[in-house]
Amino acid sequence: MEPAVLGGKLASSLVAPLVKKLFVTGGPGAGLADRPVRLDRLVSFRGERRRLGPKEVRGLAGKLVAGSLDSPGEPPFPLDETEAVTDALAARLLALGDLDMDDVQAVRLGHGELAARLRRQAAGSGNGLSTDARYFLDSATEWACLHVLEFFTRRSTFVARTLVAQTRGQAELIAKVDELISRVPRPDARDTAFERRYLPYVADRHNRITIYGIDLRDSPDRWPLEVAYLSLEATADGDRTALPDEPADPERTVRLPAEAALTAHDRVLLRGDAGSGKTTLVQWLAVTAARDGDRVPYVLPLRTLTRAGTLPSPAAFLTAVGCPLTPPEGWAERVLGAGRGLVLVDGLDEIPAAERHRTRDWLLALIRAFPGNRWLLTSRPTAVRPDWLAAEGFWELSLTPMREPDVATFVRRWHAAAEAPEFETRLLDSLRTKRDLARLATNPLMCGLICALHRERRGYLPTGRKELYDAALTMLLARRDRERGMEAVELGEEAQLELLQRLAYALVLSGRTEMAMETAEGIVARALPSVASAAGQGDAATVLRALVLRSGLLRQPGDGTLDFVHRTFQDYLGARYAVEEGHLDVIAGHAGHTQWEDVIRMAVAHARTGERAMLLRRLLAEDTPRLTLLGLACLEHATALDPLVRKEVEARAGELVPPGSKRDARALAEAGPLVLELLPGPQGLTDAEAHGVTVTASLLAAHEPVGALAVLRRFRDHPDLDVRRQLAGTWGRFEAREYAAAVLDHLDRANLFLTCTTPAQYAVLAEMRPWSRLSFRGPHPVSEIVGVLDPGVVRELALTDNPEVTDLAELAPLRSLQRLQLVGCGAARNLGGLAGLPIEELLIRRMGDLSALRELQSLSLLSVAQTLPGSRLTDALPRHAPFDFLYLGHTAIDGTGLRGLSHWQTLTRLSLAPTAPLDAEDWSEVARLPLLTDLRLNTSLLRGGLGPVTVLPSVTELHVAAFEGDEDMSTLPVRLPRVRQVTLHTAPGARFNPAPYAALFPDAEVTVDER
Question: Which residues contact 294 (CB under 8 A, 6 or more apart)?
């Protein structure tokens, strides 16, 4: 029978009273006082509260069956089975009292499953019945169970009991989940726990350095980093923050503390000479990051990584450098993926040149896969070409040689750590009075050696570099504290030198700075038969172990590896062995490799007179500027030399002097202070040559400030703007007052900016003739800046990276101010406070509030590279300003687009470099500028597709910035039908053939401006 038919037979009016009679009515509440409350406690025919017995239940079932048979229609089963069906239904209802569950559990179970439980509990209750009777019995049981559950849900205790059950279930679930988490922690919890171990490990591992000379007696081998770390200066070629598309002013060198390099840029290539402190800086950055906890540092020495053959993935970073800690799976990728990494890749110059391109590809793949992290790569200056990573956004910095204050600080710290104050003053006096000695003290390594030698020799010091190295080696090899080693092996100084120089030469030949211990043992084993004093001290492993412990020149950076404590000693000893063995041809054959430069210089120092001449002639025979200048640098070490050879070297180098470009000047400066004697001028020089000479002298100022100043002073009356910019920009390399009096105060001020960064320069500024164009970089209160200026003279002012600029109304006394640049002044507010000044040109980058920009109605030129307020340009910019030039870059028009641009009908020049593409409405605004003749676009627009550009018939001049040579410009000619001048301003380092672009504009002159 269908359920619908059965529903008609089993009327609710029959079932409901039956259900009420079967169950005891409970009181309010959840019934917790009588737990557990089972069905057998609820039914009225069980226990002490019995009201109905089997007889009464049999009667109720009979009424239900009879009611179904009396209903209209066909009977649900044969009438002769009425008694049997009634008995079976009664048996199933009585089974409710035997079920071990409560009402909440029953409701959760459902009426169908509850009926099935009753059938199983009253097994055999339907035996002997016909098919229709059994079907009726099953259906009647389900229908009764449905009403039973309905009855339960209406009881006053059900809701409360349900809530209690849910609460208990949730509590049990939470407990189980907590237990599961404790057994299997979340990845971020495991990462945090690991970093609590890793960061202190990094801080401790890299917080120790060797201070040369202090470890000779009873001192520790290694000292805390804070004792010896000296904040050195890094420099980069920098330009005044020019207005967009304006020629850059190459007048300034950016100078900043080396440890601040990664706060200014996320990607840095740091160059520095041997011993300049590159590795110590890497250690300092790792330690400070680990202690601060804002970045997770990875220190990756390339010499160790490349030895394994394959450069590691992030997952293998720690294993590759021998870290004993095991991170959670995927931890490194999660760190880098979140942009929390500080990746410090040290020693590009310490791997063979053939592996550097592979290293570059590896590094760039990491950077592209994990953007947002900070990356530092260190190298010697000439290991790779300039702009090697510029296209990938790397900022190139160079560690500058230590200046006199740096040297004095180092000397004081060294003597304090060495507990030898009695030698400090005498050494400082020697460094001030002896020029040759001062020229050597240009980096931490050489300063440490000079301090150690000065103490060891009770105040006597050699003056030449070779003599200094010889003395240092004698000190380290002969006076090393014997109590350090537990070995019985004793090696004399000559025996140690013989073995060390063979190891050094093997490393030089391999182009590496690290070798396997097995390789080193093999070299020692082959040398022992010829080194009599060492042959009787044991086998090769024993002798090598003693050499590591006793020499002070070797160390074991990892298990099974060996290297020299510094590359300088490796090159010096390798050159010494090559000369002794007559391998001059080998040395000369490697002159083209930048890694061999110091080896060649030291070989000239070790060689005999005839050998020096041969080496220098081989360098000249290559006929390249670099090797010619290398030969010139070698003259410093050639105590005795054939005069004809010396003359030839100087003559050939003279062909490179004066330098004709900035690049030539840099190459010339690498030859060292001797170049200062060869620099001519200013008479007889072209403007470009004069500029090259001043660049060279500026670069050599740190090495030889007196000689450099003498050269630069000769050019102080030169009229060329580039020369004057160079002279103004090198102020920071000298003592502020001395340079201002000798050079700056004599310069023609026309079109010349002067940049101030230090309090000493501020003080001197007030003593000079007034400057009309000034730039102030760094955190300085506006009141102090205004206080050193002549308000009636200053016409142009640039404030850069100054968080102390707040209320711009403080600039109101500068009544002649016509041009203002605000770059990196994030707290600056109240542009309206400038409304009373005659400002015509305004540049804004990373400034604060721009809401009052619309009040500056005198502007004819505006450059903005941050988001403008409002939904249209007319909401943000001064409506009545007579704009001639407008630059909108970066996010400036993210909210406004170019809507409203056509309001300024005076515009003749427009420069666009937005981050978002332009739409048809934007280009229509451009097309409605009747006087627009000069259009400047960034290649970001070309790469994203120019979109629906309308024809711009008035444009006659097109500039494209950051051009790399693969951009599609095919749609521009038809849209700019009257263009007659096209200038492609290249991206740094980009080189390409301009012919295809010239063909696109047959009626225009196409030029390339290489940056």
Answer: none
Q: Helix, strand or coil for residue 70?
A: helix
Q: Is 240 buried (19+), middle (13-18) or exposed (0-12) by CB count in 10 A? A: buried
Least Cα distance to 680 among 640, 714, 633 occurs for 714
Amino acid at 634: C
Q: Tell me: the pLDDT tens digits for 502-525?
A: 999 999 998 888 888 899 999 988
- pTM value is 0.49
Per DSSP, the three-state class of 137 is: helix
Q: What is the DSSP letter of 987?
A: P
What are the Cα distances from residue 859, in Å, to 244, 430, 617, 843, 905? 16, 58, 63, 11, 14
Phi-psi category of residue 966: left, alpha or beta, with phi > 0 → left and psi -120 to 50 → alpha? alpha
Over 50: is that where the pLDDT of 739 sits?
Answer: yes
Q: Which ranges of 29-155 would DSSP assign to H, the alpha helix?
A: 39-42, 54-70, 82-94, 103-109, 111-121, 131-154
DSSP-assigned beta bridge partners for residue 562: 515
List the structure tokens of 952.
């711009």
Decide: residue 169, CB within 10 A, 0-12 exposed, 13-18 middle, 19+ buried. exposed
The contacts found for 49-52 with CB under 8 angstroms, 24 or more apart, are: 49/24, 51/24, 52/21, 52/22
Confidence class for position 169, pLDDT limits 50, 70, 90: low
Distance CA 696, CA 708 (A): 9
Question: Would you state the pLDDT for residue 280?
Answer: 82
Which residues lie closer than 8 Å to 444 by C-beta, 6 or more apart? Answer: 228, 230, 232, 275, 276, 277, 280, 402, 410
Q: What angle do CA 10, 14, 17 make, to 5 degrees?
A: 140
Distance CA(775)–CA(800), nearest Å, equals 8
- What is the rounded distance in angstroms from the CA atom of residue 102 to the CA atom of residue 5? 32
- The residue-averaged pLDDT of 401-417 equals 82
In sequence order, what are the residues at sequence separation of 6 or more whose Cβ sits closer than 8 angstroms to the Cβ of residue 174?
A: none
Is the model's pLDDT at 98 over the cut of 90? Answer: no
Q: Is the pLDDT of residue 721 over 90?
A: yes
* Inter-residue contact 19 to 151 (CB < 8 Å): yes
The average confidence (pLDDT) of the chain is: 80
Q: How many Cβ atoms are within 10 Å of 665's Cβ, its own excluded? A: 25
Q: What pLDDT, on the 0 to 100 scale, is given for residue 632?
A: 83
> What pLDDT does residue 485 have?
36
944 to each of 826, 889, 915, 918, 985, how far by Cα in Å? 30, 15, 10, 9, 18
Cα–Cα distance list, 623 to 619, 626, 662 (Å): 7, 9, 21
Query: pLDDT grade, residue 928 (50/70/90)?
Result: very high
Closest Cα partner for 812 from 797, 833, 841?
833
pLDDT, tens only, 360-396: 899 999 999 998 899 999 987 766 777 788 778 888 8
Of 523, 466, 469, nearest in space to 499 by CA:
523
